[in-house]
Write a structure and sequence with these properties.
Length: 227
């Protein structure tokens, strides 16, 4: 089994991001770069991170009209990301056009319900019903649109896996059971990496429990040992 952990490199400085990526190489399966990284460092930053030699996950969470998202996908094609995220709430046509614009080797996965939201948060933005039901609704839409998979929390991934056998399921919002890395921060639908893996996650996104650890390599190894 290849290492399913993608480290969320949510650091503002490029030199620190490169140093962290180099340090954990061999202990994670890939590097996830978010919107804040891309806004700060652009294509140059992605090239620098790619030199480390791990697959690059561009977590841009694109959400706009179909034409705009497709154009953005074409612009990042040259960076050869392994995975790119878009928002399922952008609708079926947007997802279809994003997938059509992505390269053959790039997985396009749709964010369903952010792991920082719970049912009460969803109600406040006008989504009636549970986050669980909303994840399943958007999962079905992403599958119909021909995407490779979705992003959801470890609470839903088991049911998602039962509905979509060969999908690719990205699970962030992961926390080790104990220790400093167990602090939830802004995550509201968290589970342990092992629970997410057992439920059918293909890709485990982990940030602060590794990046903010005193020894990121030891933290990554400890998490991998639980899988
Ligand atoms: O629903 C989502 C989608 C993406 N994320 C991203 O994952 C990491 C999680 O970082 P932690 O430090 O492990 O909490 C972060 O980059 C988010 O932007 C998510 O958390 N939830």
């Amino acid at each position: 089994m290849s290492n399913p952990i993608y480290l969320a490199v949510d650091l503002p400085r490029l030199d620190a991001a490169v140093a962290l990526g180099q340090k954990v190489k061999g202990h994670v399966g890939g590097l996830k770069l978010g919107l804040e990284f891309f806004c700060a460092h652009g294509h140059h930053g992605v090239h620098e991170m790619a030199k480390i030699g791990l697959p690059i996950f561009m977590d841009l969470k694109l959400h706009d009209i179909p034409n705009t998202v497709a154009a953005a996908m074409q612009s990042i094609h040259v960076l050869q990301p392994a995975i790119v995220t878009i928002h399922a709430a952008g609708g079926r046509a947007m997802m279809e056009d994003a997938k059509a614009a992505a390269g053959e080797s790039c997985k396009v996965v749709a964010v369903t319900v952010l792991t920082s939201l719970d049912d009460a948060d969803l109600a406040r933005v006008g989504v009636a019903g549970s986050s669980h039901d909303q994840v399943l609704r958007l999962t079905d839409l992403a599958q119909e649109a021909g995407l490779d998979g979705i992003v959801c929390s470890g609470h839903e991934v088991g049911e998602v896996h039962r509905r979509w056998k060969n999908g690719y399921f990205v699970v962030p919002g992961l926390r080790p059971a104990e220790g400093k890395g167990a602090a939830l921060g802004d995550q509201k639908r968290a589970v342990t990496p092992r629970a997410a893996r057992d439920a059918g996650a293909s890709c485990l996104v982990i940030g602060r429990p590794i990046s903010r650890a005193e020894d990121p390599v030891a933290a990554a190894r400890a998490i991998e040992a639980t899988l």
